[in-house]
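Continued from yesterday's entry.
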Amino acid sequence: MSLLERLNSDMKQAMKNKDKERLSVIRMLKAAVQNEAIRLGKDGLTNDEELTVLSREVKQRKDSLQEFKNAGRSDLVEKVQNELAYVNAYLPEQLSEDEVRKIVRQTIEEVHAGSKADFGKVMGAVMPKVKGKADGTVVRNIVQQQLS
C-alpha cells in the first residue's frame, strides 16, 4: 500500500471518528505528497520520494517546535507535538543511536575517511542508507564524533 493510499484510508477513518486534528494533519501530508508528485511531473511517488516528503514535514515541525519553545508559546508547542506524532506514525521505525553509529562506522571504512575534511563525503554516503529512519541532526553529530 502506497503512502497516498494509506493517507486516504486514514483520512476516511479520521472523518468517521470526527478527529479534526488528525484529519488536518493527514490532509496536509496528502497535499504535500501530491504537490511533490506535481513538482516532479509524475503520477505517483516512489517509496524514497515519499520518505523525503515525510522527512521534510518532520523537520519543519521540529524546527517550529523549537521556535515555539523559545518564544514561550506552550499552546502551539502542544499542537506541533501532536502533529509530529501523527506524521511520525507514517515513517518507518527509527534506528537507535547505536544502529546509526554502526552504519556511520561502516561507511567511514567504505569511503576511507580519516579526518574532519571527509565530513561531506561521509554524510553523502550515510544519509541515503538511513533516509527516513534517522534524524539528520543525530547522524551529523555521530559523524562529527567519529571523525574527530
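--- second protein ---
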Amino acid sequence: MAFLTDRKRATGLGSAKSGTQHFWRTRVQSVALFFLIPLFIFTFGPILGSSYEEVTAFYARPFPAVVAALTILVSWFHFADGVQVLIEDYVHGLAEKILILLMTCISYAAAAFGIYAVVRLAL
C-alpha cells in the first residue's frame, strides 16, 4: 500500500460531476417547501373534516389545488433526493443502484398519484 501513487489511491473516488447540482437542487426544494408547507396547512386546515362535496368544491378553486399539487410534487422530489443521498452513504455496489432506482420509481409514482388525486378533486 505504501507504493501506491496519489493518483492510484484516488482512482474511483473522484467527483461524479453531479454533486453540486444535487446539493443546490435539494436546497432550492427546501426553500420552496419552506413557503409551500405553511400555505398548504392554511389552505388544507379549514377544509379538514368537511364532506366530500365541500372538499370537491374547495379544490375546484385554482389556488388551493395549485398549492396542494405543488406541495405534493416538491415534497416527493425532495424525498427522492434525500433517500438517494442516504442510500449512497450507507449502501454500496449493485444493491445501491437497485435501491436508488427502486426508491426513485416509488417516489415518482407517489407524486403522480398525488397529482392525479388533486386533479380528480379539482375537476
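The radius of gyration is 20 Å. The first helix runs from residue 6 to 10. Will compare against the first tomorrow.
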